[in-house]
Write a sequence for this structure.
């Protein structure tokens, strides 16, 4: 009798442009067809037609365990990907990174998430498996993550989230089923949110932001905990505070939440 117990996690592999990606925890991908009914006088409904282009979406969550191959696609180059299980696959071609986020906290393995919009073919039978080598596995921990933020040397950052958003705009032509060009809309927005346990941090007033908003450079470095070699560095140049809140309870220390935004016109600085 055939095994009908389902495809288990260890029987699945995710490939990105020929690289078998390590550390993947969740994948959610698919497409929807915009369908519109056609009604005519004297009969009502006749049939339905596709209204608008078909666009797919993939969301991939993974542990950050070294150089992230998704960050190679912040520019205009498309990526391809597939979930392979047994002799079957479900994949996509001509996908573009629209959002990448990275979060880390005390006692946690950093987590990454990539959102991809697909303007090419998508579905069963598409496989992009290959033999290209995955970057070396290097797992940073709380001691090997270095944050350079002015004014926080004596106040403990307990966790943070880094997010980069890239808008994409497809260009269609009559007679072509897929876009003939994907325009990357500038600027690219980058955001960092910190939770800060307060010791001597002085919270600013709203009037301070209105009269003289603060601008500063921020950086987050992920290093190998064994040899302290740099894995990747994330920077926000000329960032400004866009959100500030405070939280206090009888069960915990005083915590301030800060959000910084920065915008760039050069994807090589992403």
């Amino acid at each position: 009798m055939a095994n009908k117990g389902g495809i288990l996690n260890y029987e699945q592999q995710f490939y990105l442009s020929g690289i078998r990606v390590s550390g993947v925890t969740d994948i959610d991908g698919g497409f929807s067809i915009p369908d519109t009914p056609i009604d005519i006088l004297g009969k009502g409904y006749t049939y339905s037609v596709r209204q608008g282009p078909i666009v797919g979406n993939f969301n991939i969550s993974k542990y950050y365990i070294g150089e992230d191959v998704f960050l190679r696609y912040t520019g205009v180059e498309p990526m391809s990907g597939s979930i392979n299980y047994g002799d079957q696959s479900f994949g996509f071609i001509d996908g573009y990174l629209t959002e990448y986020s990275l979060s880390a906290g005390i006692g946690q393995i950093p987590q990454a998430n990539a959102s991809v919009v697909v303007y090419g073919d998508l579905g069963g039978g598409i496989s992009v498996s290959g033999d290209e080598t995955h970057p070396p596995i290097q797992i940073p921990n709380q001691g090997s993550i270095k944050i350079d933020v002015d004014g926080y040397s004596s106040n403990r950052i307990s966790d943070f989230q880094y997010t980069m958003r890239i808008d994409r705009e497809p260009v269609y032509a009559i007679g072509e089923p897929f876009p003939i060009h994907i325009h990357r809309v500038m600027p690219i927005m980058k955001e960092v949110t910190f939770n800060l346990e307060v010791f001597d941090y002085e919270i600013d007033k709203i009037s301070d932001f209105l009269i003289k908003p603060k601008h500063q450079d921020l950086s987050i470095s992920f290093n190998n905990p064994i040899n302290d070699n740099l894995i990747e560095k994330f920077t926000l140049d000329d960032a400004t505070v866009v959100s500030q809140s405070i939280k206090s309870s009888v069960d915990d220390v005083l915590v301030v939440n800060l959000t910084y935004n920065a915008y760039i016109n050069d994807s090589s600085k992403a």
